[in-house]
Amino acid sequence: MIDFRYIWSLLFNLTDMKLKTAIISLALFCFFAMTSFARELTKNEKIAIANLKDDVRNGRVDSVAEQVEYPQCRSAFPEYIISTKDEFKNNYDLVFDEQQIETFLSSDWRYHYGLLINDAGFTGHFDDDGVLVLDHIPLSDSEWAHVGDLVKKSRATLHPSVRDFQQPVLLLAAGKYLVRIDAMREGKFRYTCWDKGADQSAKPALVLYDGELFSTPYYTSYTFDNEGYEYYIQEGAIECDFTVSAPDGKTLLSYSDYEGEIEFKFYPAYDYSLSRELY
Q1: SS3 of residue 206 by DSSP
Q2: Which of 5, 36, 107, 157 has the fewest Cβ atoms within 10 angstroms?
Q3: Residue 20: what pLDDT?
Q4: DSSP characters for 218-232?
Q5: How confident is the model at residue 243 (pLDDT cuts 50, 70, 90)?
Q6: Of the candidates 139, 136, 135, the residue with the CA atom closest to the CA atom of residue 150
Q7: Of all helices (H) and strands (E), which one includes residue 189?
């Protein structure tokens, strides 16, 4: 019998971060492709979907609130989280604004590699009673405006030299460093680093521009160049990694949350199309 725990341990002990990421992503793709083929919705599942659509159509806030998985992290950076049913009810008109309702009602649900999704970006599952529960609700236009207001307020907490950005993307503490990535205009990214424990209002220790994004369904990576030294950050379903390599390819720094070396990380409600201005 194949010992999958042994195989995973070998993968996670690979020192080449990019190779490890590629292998894990390929393994995940093969696993889902082999074990989770798309299937048709059952009659009862279609009825459950229709019931939830009817609740949304008729504004039955209490009923909809019962069919949502909590907490709903609308944006972790800046923080905007709906943790309870009561909070959902209080923010219902923000989450299900007019455009969101129209989109939700006109969307079709289906299984995709075992994941229940719809055309509008919602994901969900059926509970033990056959009721459709929403796991992920995409940000509405009203919520994007709300997050934009939060971003505006957050600018005042940053050092003046790094207050100009399009969207916040990632914040993590790795080793003795605090690292922040922001999306800039024209599809580029900025890397800002402080010593761990420093406030973001302090002058950064290092700022790098023109970072490149590489994204797959399983992970996203950001690469920055500093006179031949490569700063590489990868985040995904498996782990988050941060490495710094010398021009000769030698790894100078390497941190992984799989090893407990990255203490925290925040992800925003980030629009990878860079089509939204959040300020």
Answers
A1: strand
A2: 5
A3: 55
A4: SEEEEEEEETTEEEE
A5: very high
A6: 139
A7: strand 189-195
Q: How far apart are the first and last CA of the chain?
A: 56
Tokens of residue 245, six digits: 């390599």
pTM of the model: 0.61
Which position has the token pair 């923010």? 91
Neighbour order of strands in the sheet with 177-183: 251-256, 240-245, 229-236, 219-226, 206-215, 189-195, 177-183, 167-174, 262-266
pLDDT of residue 240 exceeding 90 = no
Helix (H, G, I), strand (E, B) or coil at 10: helix
23 phi, psi to nearest 5 deg:
-65, -45
Helix (H) or strand (E) holding 63: helix 61-65
- Is the pLDDT at 270 greater than 70? The verdict is no
Give yes or no for residue 67 having a pLDDT over 90: yes
Judged by phi (left if over 0) then psi (alpha if -120 to 50, else beta), residue 89 lies in: alpha
Give the whole-angstrom CA distance, residue 267 versus residue 122.
Answer: 18
Secondary structure in 3-state letters for 100-143: HHHHHHHCCEEEECCEEEECCCCEEEECCCCCEEEEECCCCHHH
206: which 2 tokens? 């290092």
Residue 124's pLDDT is 94
Strands 123-126 and 132-136: antiparallel
Tokens, residue 96:
């299900």
Tokens 């939060």, residue located = 150
Residues 137-179 pLDDT 10s = 999 999 988 888 888 888 888 999 999 988 888 888 898 999 9
Point out which residues pair with 229 in neighbouring strands. 226
